[in-house]
């Protein structure tokens, strides 16, 4: 479903990514891990079109999308969330999700502002769908509350619901449980599993090793802009280079 070939990018003298390649199958959960500064966010930005890489290609379901802008990639089914929460605090929970659906609606934002009748009908349908997405992430009961008043764990799930409203084929999650407590992490974990079971391909960057190792089908370890290893969580745990460069340090710190 997603194929990344030889992506590279430099910022001045810093080579942030150097020949990174990977493929992710439909419905797979693929995690990118690595120490601070390894290039995870930069890789996300290149794949989603926010950064223009110095070299390399990105394919979505076989089509070369390397030259497409982020919104064009989103229209083709590649949606991402951001590390820092990006919700509209002064809108309700359900309105936030409805905003996600707009990219597929006729008329766009101008028609909405003019309040055209066909758009109003669309609004009812969009709201129904948005409620279904909220239900899928377990927060439908909060639909008409203000988004800005919600707990961190709810907002993280709201972001996923809004991303689902764009009908993604590939969902890219940047640190989906950052700042969450154990209960909230378990809730987000369950949502991601459910989304993948529906056939959505999930790529995530996450620092919570316990969560990643339990959730991901495969793990891709980056170090200093290069691929250090790719494998199942079990393979990654046993990989000597990974232990030396990264996991050993993390697990020692955890202990
Ligand atoms: N816009 C930018 N301009 C200059 N340098 C950048 C830019 N974005 C990233 N870098 C550099 O590229 C390298 C990779 O950074 P990146 O943020 O992708 O790492 P990361 O693995 O996501 O780290 P973290 O886990 O801390 O989020 C770092 O050396 C960083 O300083």
TrEMBL record:
One of its GO terms (molecular function) is L-valine transmembrane transporter activity. SUPFAM superfamilies: P-loop containing nucleoside triphosphate hydrolases. Residues 2-249 form the ABC transporter domain. It comes from the Bacteria. GO terms for cellular component: plasma membrane. One of its GO terms (biological process) is L-valine import across plasma membrane. PROSITE patterns: ABC_TRANSPORTER_2. The keyword ATP-binding applies. Keywords: ATP-binding, Nucleotide-binding, Transport. It holds the Pfam family ABC_tran. This is Branched-chain amino acid transport system ATP-binding protein. It comes from Camelimonas lactis.
